[in-house]
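Most newcomers find our protein records easier to grasp once they have seen one. To make this concrete, we reproduce a full record directly below:

…
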Amino acid sequence: MATTARPRESLESGDRLTREEFHRRYSARLDIGRAELVRGVVYVPSPTRAEEHAEPHGSIMLWLGTYKSRTPGVRMADNATVFLPDGSEVQPDACLYRLGAPGARIRITPDGYLEGTPDLVVEVAASSASYDLHDKLEAYRRSGVREYIVWRVLDQAIDWMRLEGEQYHITEPDAAGIIASAAFPGLRLAVTKMLAGDDAGVLAVLG
């Protein structure tokens, strides 16, 4: 007897869904490598370009991974699904967090997802027009992410934002061109060296 194939679940950029419905559809669409729900709106990114995303992403992971390897208790995730308190379901390029520590606001669910608020999030964006600096920034702000870093690749700029009260404020590099994290002691970024692709120089200033 012939069987009728079930239609694929619809999941398109611009769809407006609850988190529960988004997660159900996303879980059913194994052909979609990445999708996010940001403040009720679905975003399905374009394929990843090497110089505009993948290579900068690799440098970020090297930087954070090296810090994690030297800092007991710090956890790091690469593109993990995070259920934010504001109802968004995102996959940040990278995030740092602590589990079970005093003041920790995140946990791993029985299904293996992150739920809550990472202390630090990094996104690699093509430019200032990206949703990383608009709707996604607002989701992170409303969820209380303490530090939010956006590498604007085409603009050759890195924005390190720190939550002060209820608003993000840009943290400027010091006289040596370095920004130090407030949430993670010893996490320091040589901004110019990162932008230049000098991974060794970036790692040299880590605490």
